[in-house]
Amino acid sequence: MKYFLLFLLLEVLPTSTESADYKTFNLVTYNTGLTPSNAVAGYSHRLEVLKTTLAKFTGGDVLCLQEVWRQQDILDILNAARSMFPYYHTQVSGNPGDRLNPTVTPCSLSPLLHGLACLNTSCYNELQISIAYATPCAFNKCAAQINALTQECLTCMFQLDAAGVPSSQLANVMVTKCSLDSAHNYVSTHGLMMLSKYPLTNKRRHSYHLELLFPVTRGYLSAEIAGLGTAVCTHLTTAIGASYFGPPQFSSFLEFQGNEVDQLLTAFPANSTPTSILMGDFNTGPEVPQHNVSAVFVANYYTIINASYESPYVNDIGRCTVCSDNPISVLRNSEIVDNIFISKHRNFTVTNVEQIWTDMNLTGNGPLSDHSAAIRLTLRVLQEPSALSTSPSALPTSPFALSTSPPTKQPPLSTSAPTVSSSVRVSVGVLLPLVCLVLHIIAVNH
User: What's the sign of the alpha-carbon dihedral 205, 263, 276, 62?
Assistant: First the structure.
């Protein structure tokens, strides 16, 4: 009799809800270094290897890519990766009204010629080294001509940085690449891409300094993913040149970047609902002496940490993401600039953090980027009932066949600690008296 009652008790008790209540997400951030020039060596070959890698990459659910400047490169990556990542978000594609027109060049010819004439006259010595080295001079001595250009034109000029091209030919190269040849259109002034296996809703794009003209502007992409929260992909300002030449309202590149950090944390506070996850190249990081990692703009890193975010990568790995031994990196120091920050007010647990794409011969003749590693963070996320059925949907018919209907608002994710689901609580409440009765009968008949 007692064995029959035990069997009955086991049959009616609820089974584990582990697979039903939790979902695993792999998040990846990577700076591709796809500057279409000799500034980062091997651009064309590295792009082809990256496309091949993403086309068969099964180790990520949401990817944040930085420094994809050319809109043709964006299109090529989207087409190559769409079987693995059918959903995407970029600065220049994915929403109605986006400026994705490969037939339009970034620079009008007349303002570009005036700007180049001033550069050649006022910054000749600096141009003998490179356009990047001449950037401070250009903004100090050619301000009127610079202000007559569009941001897309500036990005084209200063990302081109035709290393090895004699300064006497540089003007011709810039006119060709930025004004005459539409294949070199650099309209992605932020250089950001977000790829996802899951639908992206409530997509936003933001420029940190929309009113400013600068060689490289910064911003972020964000989107909500059901069952995960809000994914944010960003790239923050770094120091350019030996001395500060940026907007006059800031006194240094540290302060310039700090304003971007403030904007980011205001838009995505750590206690926000849904939970926010910040990914990208932050150009700020701590010193890690045991791994020979130098600090970079460290005050801004701790501004993020003190805002109730944390970095599992720094805490558990702590190795450089831009490294002095990378043969195509121009940096002399090893630093942690790439990161994934997670809120301390979260409804998920970190199950793994690691470096990937670290092989310095990944392309067959060198590394995949001047950044020595991508970061992959694996999260185990407690699911709300409405998110349990969410899964990757059928592929769009083309890379730009996204719905233009308003995005569906997902129910807010809980920010409390994981708890037993309500259905389990109800079952336990109903079955508790039965359990007590069965145990009493067994005890009496023993």
Answer: positive
Question: pLDDT tens across 396-415, in order?
Answer: 444 443 332 333 333 333 33
pTM of the predicted protein model? 0.79
**Maximum separation of any 2 CA atoms in the chain, in Å:** 104
CA distance 143 to 118: 10
Tokens matching residue 283: 């150009």
Q: Please check whether residue 368 is in contact with residue 40, taking contact to mean a CB–CB distance below 8 angstroms.
A: no
Spatial distance between the Cα atoms of 132 and 165, rounded to a whole number of angstroms: 13
Instruction: Annotate 375-385 with b (16+ C-beta within 10 A) or e (fewer).
Output: bbbbbebbbbe
* Residue 418, both tokens: 């994981």
Question: Is 231 within 8 Å of 272 (Cβ atoms)?
Answer: no
For 361, phi then psi, to 5°, come to -125, 35
Q: Residue with structure tokens 């083309």?
A: 398
Tell me how crowded residue 244 is: count the other CB atoms within 10 A of its CB: 16
- Choose among 156, 148, 141, 140: nearest CA to 111: 148
Look at residue 426 and tell me whether its pLDDT is greater than 50. Answer: no
